[in-house]
Design goal:
It is built from 10 helices and 12 strands. It is an alpha/beta fold. Strand 11, helix 9 and strand 12 form a beta-alpha-beta unit. Bound molecules: NADP nicotinamide-adenine-dinucleotide phosphate.
């Protein structure tokens, strides 16, 4: 049997993924082009933004393994076979990178480092009030692999952290709340709200004018999940009216963020080019290999997506 890598990768990305996958899967036949082997021989597809239709007509397909953590694009593609198990990328190294990014963002907001960066542009010398970490409550929305790592890292650094998820979670050092009823409390008590929800029909456009109105006046939003979680016009209005103080954004409705976009030059917005937690083939290829070995040995697959929930 053969493994098809159906991935829209740059030459540089291929140069790191290909040797990493070969090293992690030395006994497997890896193909980059499905025409290299008869369709019936392909039983696993490793995917990253596959071309529409690329996974159709593969009668032996038994596993679709995403190389990315987010799978909303695969779920929205009607040509991705709905009856084949779909696993997503869960890599502890990515969780660690996400925790670092969140800590940087919260420190920058808490200690006003983003405001000082704006002041520097204007050659302005102005010292602002300095708060303690325990005076800066943080909300983490989504307590999955990323959200837990983030919430714990922030709690370890002295921030009072409330986490919110669909079902009740338990995270050391974090007040974990669940369900719609708890959401208003979580939003209205945080100086910084961090989004780590998956993008699903239930969470699309989650951060809109109504939700911003529930947040503390002058609080900040850190979006590290998906651009479509945020209604961009509502965010701009909330920042311009003073309802929100600052936004740190790693993800956008259109990526790359167009050069003409209002976010680039906004003094209350910090833009990152979707780098909060990049997939690193050095750690991700062994994660992929583990699931492939599980399939070959008839063991349960890990990190399967629940298609009915959308994540
Ligand atoms: P995950 O493990 O699937 O966790 C999702 C969490 O969100 C779970 O706690 C889940 O609750 C909760 N949730 C889902 N739907 C909800 C709803 N409607 N209301 C309340 N809570 C809900 O996801 P993850 O791996 O941590 O990834 C989180 C996000 O990060 C995703 O959007 C992913 O695409 C994004 N991401 C971004 C980058 C980047 O570089 N910017 C990198 C990787 C991932 P339950 O526990 O009850 O199911």
């Amino acid at each position: 049997m053969a493994i098809l890598i159906a991935a829209d990768l740059s030459a540089d990305e291929w140069a790191s993924w290909w040797p990493a996958l070969q090293a992690a899967l030395p006994d497997e036949q890896l193909v980059r082009d499905r025409a290299q082997v008869p369709a019936g021989q392909i039983d696993i597809a490793l995917v990253a933004n596959p071309k529409g239709g690329e996974l159709q007509g593969l009668p032996g397909l038994a596993l679709i393994q995403s190389l990315w953590a987010g799978v909303e694009g695969l779920l929205a593609d009607p040509t991705v076979p709905a009856d084949v198990p779909l696993a997503r990328m869960v890599d502890p190294a990515m969780n660690e990178a996400m925790a670092q990014t969140a800590l940087w963002a919260v420190l920058g907001l808490h200690r006003r480092f983003f405001s000082y960066a704006v002041q520097q542009q204007a050659r302005q010398w102005r010292q602002r009030a300095q708060w303690r970490a325990d005076e800066v409550p943080v909300a983490v929305l989504g307590l999955g692999h990323m959200g837990r790592a983030v919430a714990q890292r922030l709690a370890l650094n002295g921030y009072p952290v409330r986490g919110w998820s669909r079902s009740q979670a338990e995270v050391d050092g974090v007040v974990a709340l669940a369900g719609e009823a708890a959401l208003a409390h979580v939003l209205s008590t945080a100086r910084v709200v961090i989004n780590l929800l998956p993008l699903t029909p239930a969470t699309r456009a989650f951060f809109n004018a109504d939700r911003f109105a529930q947040m503390l006046r002058g609080a900040s939003l850190v979006n590290l999940a998906r651009g479509a979680h945020v209604v961009e016009a509502d965010l701009l209005a909330a920042l311009d009216s003073g309802r929100l103080g600052h936004a740190v954004l790693d993800v956008f409705g259109t990526e790359p963020l167009p050069a003409s976009h209002a976010f680039w030059g906004h003094p209350q917005i910090t833009v990152l080019p979707h780098v909060a937690a990049l997939t690193d083939p050095r750690s991700a290829a062994p994660v992929v290999a583990q699931n492939i070995r599980a399939l070959r040995q008839g063991r349960p697959l890990e990190h399967l997506v629940d298609r009915s929930r959308g994540y």
